[in-house]
Amino acid sequence: MGTNWRVKAALPDDLLPGALAARLVRRLEQLVARLSHWEADSALSRFNRARAGSWHGLDDDFAQVMACALDIAARSEGAFDPAIGVLVNLYGHGPRPAPHQPPGAEALADARAVSGWQRLDWDAQGQRLCQPGNCHLDLSGIAKGYGVDALAGELEAAGLRHFLVEIGGEFSARGMRPDGDPWWVELETPPQALAQGIAPLRLALCDSAVATSGDYVRGAHTLDPRSAAPVHHVLALSVIHESAMQADAWATALGVMPTPALRAHAEREELAVRCITREGSRLTEWISPALARMMD
C-alpha cells in the first residue's frame, strides 16, 4: 500500500508477539495480492488488463470493498469513484512516475471516456464484476481503511479485546489501554491551522475508527472524479465511523466536494466529521453535528 502499519495491543500471556505479527503480515500480503494497483499480478491489476465484456469472480475481500465503493459512489453522487485509475495514472499519482506538467485537455478527455463507476456492471449476489473495456480500478481511497478493519478482525479472531491498529494514518481501536486510559488519537491538525488558532482535537477512540484525507502532507494529490481536476480547498478532513473502510471512503468523497456540498452530505449521512478548509488565505474549521454530539 506504499505506507507503514502498526498495532498496539494488550497481549495475553500465552500469545507471542512474533507469532501475532506473522499472522498480521500474512493477512496484509493477502490484501496486497487482491487489491493493490501497484502489484502487476494482483487481482485488481488483472481486472484492469482484462478484455472488454469479460466477467470476473471476486474473492470476499475484493467483493466487500467493491460493494462498499459502489454504494458510496452512488450516495456521494460520484464524488467517490473506484474506477478512475486511468485518470490517477495520467496525473502520476499511481505506479507510474509523475509527469512534468499537468495532462492536456485531449488526454483528460480520453481518460474520462474510459473511467467512471457507472460503466461497471456489478453482480452483487454472484460477487462478479464486468470489465467494460480499458477501465482501471483504483481502490487507494478505500483499501487502507479495509486493511485496518481486516487487521482488527484478525486480532479479534486471535482473542484480543484491547488494541489500536493503524495503516498510513487510518486507525481503529477496541477496548482500552492496559493503564486504563482510552486509545488516544489526535486528528491531523496542520501547522498552518495551529498558527491561525485552530486547536488540536484529540479522540478517545473506542470501538470505532477514524480516517483522514487532505493535501497538507502530499500536496494536491486528490482528484475530483466528476471534473478530473485536483482539489485544493480541503487541508485536512477526518471522518469517525465504526468501520475504517467507510471512514476512509467518506473522507475521500467529502474531501473533493465544495464546502457547502461537503457539509450537506455529512449532515445527510449523519457522519462525524472535522474539516479544515481554505477560504482565500484564511482557514476555517467545521465540526459536523454528529461529531459535536459526540464531543458533548
TrEMBL record:
Family annotation (Pfam families): ApbE
Keywords tagged on the record: FAD, Flavoprotein, Magnesium, Metal-binding, Transferase
Cofactor(s) demanded: Mg(2+); Mn(2+)
Main EC class the enzyme belongs to: transferase
Ligand binding (Mg(2+)): G141, D248, T252
Single GO MF descriptor: transferase activity
EC number per UniProt: 2.7.1.180
Catalytic activity reported: L-threonyl-[protein] + FAD = FMN-L-threonyl-[protein] + AMP + H(+)
UniProt entry tagged with the keyword Flavoprotein: yes
Sequence similarity: Belongs to the ApbE family.
UniProt name for this protein: FAD:protein FMN transferase
